Amino acid sequence: MPDGTDPGDPVGSFAHIPYYAIGCTLDAIAARSDGRMTVEVAGKSALGRDLYQVTINALDTSQQRKDFHAWQQIRKIAMSDPVRA
User: Fold this and answer.
1) CB neighbours of 6 closer than 8 A, spacing ≥ 6?
2) Where does the pLDDT of residue 28 fall: very low under 50, low under 70, confident under 90, or very high at 90 and above?
3) Who contacts 20 (Cβ-Cβ below 8 Å, separation ≥6)?
4) 41 within 8 A of 22, measured Cβ to Cβ
5) pLDDT class for 15, splitting at 50, 70, 90?
């Protein structure tokens, strides 16, 4: 199966990660992101598997950090009380 490592592989080919390795792979990437990437379990699939939500932000300025914090608060409300959000 094409995994993108051969120049002849179709555009968009990529190495496949087995499902059991997705969470730890995302966590490892987030750990190296200097706080710019967060990983959360946003729910479960029909098969009961974790659905991951990955957020990547530029947190270079204080305004970017402030805006991200505000978004986190709104999202928290939206997840628990969508009408209020």
Assistant:
1) none
2) very high
3) none
4) no
5) confident
Of 32, 52, 49, which is closest to residue 40 (Cα–Cα)?
Answer: 52
Structure tokens at 80: 């628990």
CB under 8 Å, gap of 24 or more: what pairs does 26-33 form? 26/52, 26/54, 30/54
**Of 50, 45, 27, 52, which Cα lies nearest the Cα of 37?**
27
The per-residue pLDDT for range 41-55, each reduced to its tens digit, is 999 999 999 999 998
3-class secondary-structure state, position 34: coil
Cα distances from 26 to residues 10, 17, 36, 46, 55, in angstroms, run 25, 11, 13, 21, 11
